[in-house]
Write a structure and sequence with these properties.
Low-confidence stretches: none
Number of strands: 14
Order of helices and strands: EHEHEHEHEEEEEHEHEHEEHHE
Largest sheet: 3 strands, parallel
Bound molecules: glutamic acid
Radius of gyration: 20 Å
Number of helices: 9
CATH class of the largest domain: Alpha Beta
Strand content: 15-25%
CATH superfamily of the largest domain: HUPs
Shape: globular
CATH topology of the largest domain: Rossmann fold
Number of domains: 2
């Protein structure tokens, strides 16, 4: 039997924690151009599952900005806050498989073991074989299988991570009841039939965890590509925390042109309109021309 390649389906999945900035614009442009140049669909998902981190009006602002810059997405926008039942079902499946377990440990108890990993402390497996005496389950963790997880990044080549050793049994549902990004993103990428994930390199270390979950939930693993991060002059990733300025929407075509330039696309000056810029970019876009190693310095003051 011959395997049939699924039609390309990509997505952009911003969290509404603030306005779009030059860094998130680069990710949006890269994922959009790659989808369109491969004849694929491009879906939009608002990852609003962490209300304490969200900013009122940010989701609407992001959609408005994308519209002004001429992005066209397929289908309705998916809001993660409407998907809590699906995350609960996935968690239940993992619990029934014995792959998710309740944990009653506090941050300080975990830190006391002092096992440093890629992202803070590695969980010392205190509740892995049952809650320690006197504890109640506050969070739910994934029982991560031992061994290396490998995946191919379309810009960076083969990547591997020993999730158990470098990350540990990660959280699926937090002590405050909120679902973790890792679980939600895997459930939604599968539900939306995403074949190709193109996103920022800040998520490179998350991909192996997502593959752990995909295998446990028996859903397909998409192809992955992590675009270079945009950093400010202090070498920090542009984000709300590093006070990245909002995009200038008084001149949307100029803002789009700058975004394209950061990905190595230099449309001629005759392309003045947003539609002309996109038309040119679609002809000239090549993922292989993006320099994966480079952290583009944003010169915005
Ligand atoms: N919501 C994430 C962010 O805004 C992106 C998640 C993803 O692309 O997997 O950084």
């Amino acid at each position: 039997m011959t395997a049939v390649a699924l039609p390309y389906r990509g997505r952009f999945a911003p969290s509404p924690t603030g306005h779009l900035h030059a860094g998130s614009l680069s990710t949006a442009i890269g994922s959009y151009l790659e989808a369109r140049c491969r004849g694929g669909e491009w879906l939009l998902r608002i990852e609003d599952i962490d209300p304490p981190r969200e900013v009122a009006g940010a989701a609407t602002g992001i959609l408005h900005t994308l519209e002004q810059l001429g992005f066209e997405w397929d289908g309705a926008v998916l809001y993660q806050h409407t998907r809590l039942d699906a995350y609960q079902t996935a968690l239940k499946q993992l619990q029934q498989q014995g792959l998710a377990y309740g944990c009653g440990c506090s941050r300080s108890e975990i830190a006391a073991y002092g096992i440093r990993g890629l992202e803070g402390w590695v969980y010392p497996n205190l509740c892995r074989d049952g809650l320690a005496a006197g504890k109640t389950a506050r969070a739910w963790r994934m029982r991560v299988p031992a061994g290396e997880y490998r995946f191919y990044d379309r810009l960076r080549g083969w990547q591997q991570q020993n999730v158990a050793a470098e990350i540990g049994d990660f959280v699926l549902r937090r002590a405050d009841g909120l679902f973790a990004y890792q679980l939600a993103v895997v459930v939604d990428d599968a539900a939306q039939g995403i074949t190709d994930v193109v996103r920022g390199a800040d998520l490179l270390d998350s991909t192996a965890r997502q593959i752990v979950l995909q295998q446990a939930l028996q859903v397909p693993t998409p192809s992955y590509c992590h675009l270079p991060l945009l950093v400010n002059q202090a070498g920090e990733k542009l984000s709300k925390q590093t006070l990245a300025p909002p995009l200038d929407l008084t001149q949307p075509a100029q803002t789009l042109r700058q975004g394209l330039q950061r990905l190595g696309l230099f449309p001629p000056l005759e392309c003045q309109q947003i539609s002309e810029l996109w038309q040119w970019a679609r002809i000239h876009w090549q993922l292989s021309n993006v320099n994966a190693a480079c952290q583009v310095i944003d010169r915005t003051p």
